[in-house]
């Protein structure tokens, strides 16, 4: 199924989120080389996380699709069985009526 993110990766995402929150509230500007490196790291970690969620989503879609097809097939079988039983009952009833009519003559 889906590959889980390691605790280290999740910790990295949280750390970068904390840095971003601290920087947005700080009045001083960060060093010039740090934002690019942090941005790339943030992008890589977040992309990995999104890719993992997509794998989970795809697996759930596949399982749901299989379940839906199975339930549709079961419903169609039940409908056919009900039709057959109804026809059989109707034929028996008609046959009984026919015998009664023929016996009364």
UniProtKB/TrEMBL annotation:
It comes from the Bacteria. This is Uncharacterized protein. It comes from Vreelandella olivaria. The lineage of its organism: Bacteria, Pseudomonadati, Pseudomonadota, Gammaproteobacteria, Oceanospirillales.
């Amino acid at each position: 199924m889906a590959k889980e993110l390691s605790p280290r990766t999740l910790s990295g995402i949280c750390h970068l989120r904390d840095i971003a929150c601290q920087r947005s509230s700080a009045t001083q500007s960060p060093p010039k080389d740090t934002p690019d490196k942090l941005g790339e790291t943030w992008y890589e970690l977040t992309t990995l996380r999104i890719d993992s969620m997509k794998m989970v989503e795809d697996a759930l879609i596949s399982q749901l699709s299989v379940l839906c097809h199975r339930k549709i097939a079961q419903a169609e079988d039940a409908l056919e069985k009900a039709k057959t039983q109804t026809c059989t009952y109707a034929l028996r009833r008609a046959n009984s009526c026919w015998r009664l009519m023929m016996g009364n003559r």
